[in-house]
Write a structure and sequence with these properties.
alpha/beta, four-stranded parallel beta sheet, about 35% helix, binds iron/sulfur cluster
């Protein structure tokens, strides 16, 4: 019997009553949909998708700010590829469109490439749109440290980094929450370790299982989570021990601590989450694009900074898009009337269809009418 089949059997044998679990990470969502794991779950066990797509949760107002900067002739705006196709508040208004209209928008695969851009263009301002969870934030922190030590005066950050555990808490505290246990994102745990998850599990009485991304990893995480639920012992468990250490990556955590402070921050689709973001510390304030360029956009003052309390008026995109419900696990992409019709990867109406980690993109890729039945494609069952 294969490892996947063995774990699926263990899971089936463990479930004695209905449970609802959430996989937090968009990469896990893609794997689950790709391999049809949700279609293999025993009766009573429900899996819903979480908000773990960094592109999807970046507020529309931050995209608006990036668009405003990209339209300035003195600015080179750079970011990761997926961010270039995400619309801001206005439907269809994205960074690729700004580039087509003459803006200087560059795609980076590493934040450190912004250093080279700044050096090669001393007469212009380079702005890095910095997004993502605790996984990408250390690289941004390294960029900030190097920019400061090199004395680069033409490099700044439009920072929108977010923290995952506060979003998990917000989901549990939302009215009508159905989540009883989490599969925590293995790569976030690789950086941050397990300590941040302990108060979440203890305070809300839910099991949290650090989980990987392969079918075997996901089934192991589900099984461990169900075991904890059935036993009534909410705890944090590491089911991705080949990668995740209890204390994470101390070097990366120290870098984060040096450059960033925890701030309240709006998430697209979820509203302002207390402690949900990472703002630049005062020592790095000179690198803050919001400060450097002033009121260039609709973002509230202080957004993304240590003292940020903003968040009102951060749109979730065009009204046809139900991304907010999807990011909270209250709907699946096929519930959206626009799915596969007006909203497709070539013509995305919302971020979850743009991003390589977005749930809508996963469903479109693996569950469209043309797609091979996913369960049939699952490996070695
Ligand atoms: S299918 Fe498109 S419009 Fe619908 S929720 Fe997903 S991204 Fe938004």
């Amino acid at each position: 019997m294969s490892r996947v089949a063995e774990l699926a059997e263990r899971l089936r044998a463990s479930v004695t009553r209905p449970w609802t679990l959430m996989e937090v990470c968009g990469g896990q969502t893609h794997a689950i949909v790709r391999w049809g794991l949700d279609q293999l779950l025993p009766e009573g066990l429900r899996l819903i998708h979480g908000p773990g797509c960094p592109v999807c949760v970046t507020p529309a107002a931050t995209l608006d700010a990036a668009l405003a900067l990209a339209r300035r002739p003195d600015v080179i705006l750079c970011s990761y590829g997926d961010m270039l196709r995400v619309p801001g508040s206005a439907p269809g208004d994205d960074l690729l469109g700004a580039r087509a209209a003459g803006g200087d928008v560059r795609l980076l695969t590493s934040p450190l490439q912004a250093i080279g851009l700044a050096r090669e263009n001393p007469g212009r301002q380079v702005v890095f749109l910095a997004v993502g969870f605790e996984t990408t934030a250390p690289a941004t922190a390294l960029l900030a440290r190097q920019a400061l030590s090199l004395g680069l005066s033409n490099l700044s950050l439009l920072n929108a980094h977010v923290r995952v555990p506060p979003a998990m808490a917000a989901i549990l505290e939302a009215p009508g929450n159905q989540v009883q246990g989490f599969l925590a994102a293995g790569h976030v745990c690789t950086v941050m370790g397990l300590q941040e998850l302990e108060p979440l599990a203890a305070g809300h009485g839910v099991p949290v299982v650090a989980t990987g991304f392969e079918p075997e990893d996901l089934l192991l995480g589900l099984w461990r989570c169900v075991q904890l639920l059935e036993a009534g012992t909410p705890a944090v468990v590491n089911a991705y021990g080949q990668v995740v250490r209890e204390h994470g990556n101390p070097g990366a955590r120290a870098l984060l601590e040096e450059v960033f402070a925890v701030v309240d921050q709006p998430w697209r689709g979820l509203g302002v989450i207390p402690g949900g973001g990472l703002g630049l510390r005062p020592a790095y304030a000179d690198l803050d694009a919001r400060r450097r360029f002033g009121g260039f956009c609709g973002e509230a003052p202080g957004f993304g900074g240590v003292n940020s309390t903003s968040g009102d008026g951060f749109g979730d995109g065009p009204s046809a898009c139900i991304a907010g419900q999807i990011l909270q696990g209250r709907a699946v992409p096929t519930d959206c009337p626009a799915f596969g019709g007006r909203c497709r990867p070539e013509h995305p109406l919302g971020a979850p269809m743009v991003s390589s980690e977005g749930a809508c993109a996963a469903y479109h890729r693996y569950r469209s009418a043309e797609a091979t039945t996913v369960a049939a494609a699952a490996p070695a069952l």
